[in-house]
Amino acid sequence: MRGGPLDAARIGAELGERATLVQFSSAFCQPCRATRRTLAEVARMVDGVAHVEIDAEAHLTLVRELEISRTPTVLVLDAAGRIVRRAIGQPRTVDVVAALGQAM
After folding, report:
1. Residues 55/29, Cβ–Cβ less than 8 Å
2. Which of 26, 41, 45, 80 has its CA 20 to 30 A from that of 19?
3. CB 44: neighbour CB atoms within 10 A?
4. Model pTM?
């Protein structure tokens, strides 16, 4: 990844106090809807965690920079905006919670 950690300016939203779940989605992506629900639920359950959804088609520069090849792609960021985990496809809640354990 070029450009170092991600920050609010680059992802278009504030980072979570402890971690951030960044979801790259596209308009006609069925698994993206389920992923949105899962990540939003985890963000509500875990204090200090934010969920940010990014429209891949509207942010092609960032998509290319981060080498996002499919949607949904989920990046787990630590409090400083460093990517600690990356997953492609619809995640399970238990896997998201485990990934947050690495970020916090």
Report:
1. no
2. 26
3. 10
4. 0.94
